[in-house]
Specification:
The protein is mainly α. It is 65% helix and 4% strand. Strands 1-2-3 form a 3-stranded antiparallel β-sheet. Helix 2 crosses helix 4 and helix 5 packs antiparallel against helix 7.
Length: 303
């Protein structure tokens, strides 16, 4: 178990710069000028495109140095550890309770395979949802700290440099509820993702895949696929984590003063930005970018 957590922490640290750059993009920070490029791998029409995420990481490196690439890595590792640990503990407890209270199938269930499948699906998926929600709830304060530490890159603030100073700053500015900023869209997104991906993957495996190992890969694949549909909830969660936080990135022109996460989602969707930060390459300028056309570098290949 310990080795598994160490390996997970190591992978998180290795890929942290990518996640860090993604968060800054989600918050609306685009320090590099977009350039003209063609869609469909050079065969389509011309569009303005932001530099790919690795050039964005290069900008962070030039600004903050190598260690600057790991801003927020501490709370991110701790958040993942706490979330996964609570998730597994709760899931083990609810599964044990279900197995201990296992009852004989009714006559109707015995004669209808679909009813049995639906009943099993809803029980198992509900357990996963409960466990995931508990894990998210337990890890949310550390998640908020992580986002705010990363967000300091934009304005050069120092209030959230450490976990301890972050705890004090959040309580001073937002009170106890500040530790759970952005919780609602994050929980809803996780719930939707688990229900939809589990339903489709289990239905697919039931009728098309017999190999148990292959079924596991199918489940993971459907999770990645449907993650794109629930991405707007993740985006809203991260934006709301810094909303009214007193940071430069939490004010106009980076973001509006949102009254709720619903207001945030509707605003981003209305401007065509509900998937901002989801792409690593071919990051086409969409909606209200906040960048004057005069700074566009025509003809440069920035994808």
């Amino acid at each position: 178990m310990a080795a598994q957590y160490v390996a997970s922490a190591g992978l998180t640290a290795v890929f942290h710069p990518i996640g860090y750059a993604k968060v800054l993009i989600q918050l609306g920070h685009e320090p590099l000028d977009p350039g003209l490029t063609k869609t469909w791998f050079g065969l389509g029409k011309e569009k303005f495109c932001y530099p790919n995420i690795f050039k964005y990481i290069g900008h962070i490196y030039k600004t903050d140095g190598f260690l600057g690439l790991y801003r927020g890595v501490g709370p991110r590792i701790l958040s993942g550890f706490v979330g996964n640990y609570v998730d597994k503990i709760v899931l083990k407890a609810v599964k044990g309770q279900r197995l201990g209270a296992k009852s004989e199938p009714t006559e109707l269930e015995a004669n209808d395979e679909l009813i049995v499948w639906c009943k099993t699906f809803f029980k198992q998926t509900s357990e996963e949802v409960l466990a995931k929600c508990c894990g998210v709830l337990a890890s949310q304060p550390l998640h908020v700290i992580m986002i705010r530490q990363m967000a300091q890159f934009v304005g050069g603030e120092t209030e959230y440099n450490s976990i301890f100073s972050s705890v004090t700053e959040i309580y001073h500015n937002d009170g106890i509820f500040g530790y759970f900023a952005g919780l609602a869209p994050r929980v809803i997104g996780e719930m939707l993702l688990i229900f939809v991906s589990n339903f489709v993957s289990q239905l697919f495996n039931k009728y098309f895949v017999e190999d148990k190992e292959l079924q596991t890969y199918c489940g993971a694949g459907f999770g990645l696929l449907f993650g794109q549909f629930t991405y707007p909830f993740q985006l809203a969660s991260n934006v709301m984590a810094v909303n009214n936080a007193g940071l430069v990135v939490s004010r106009y022109p980076f973001m509006d003063n949102y009254t709720s996460w619903v207001d945030c989602m509707l605003s981003l969707r209305g401007r065509g930005l509900s998937h901002r930060g989801s792409a690593m390459f071919f990051r086409y300028v969409k909606g209200e970018s906040g960048i004057s056309p005069s700074v566009f570098v025509a003809g440069s290949k920035q994808f």
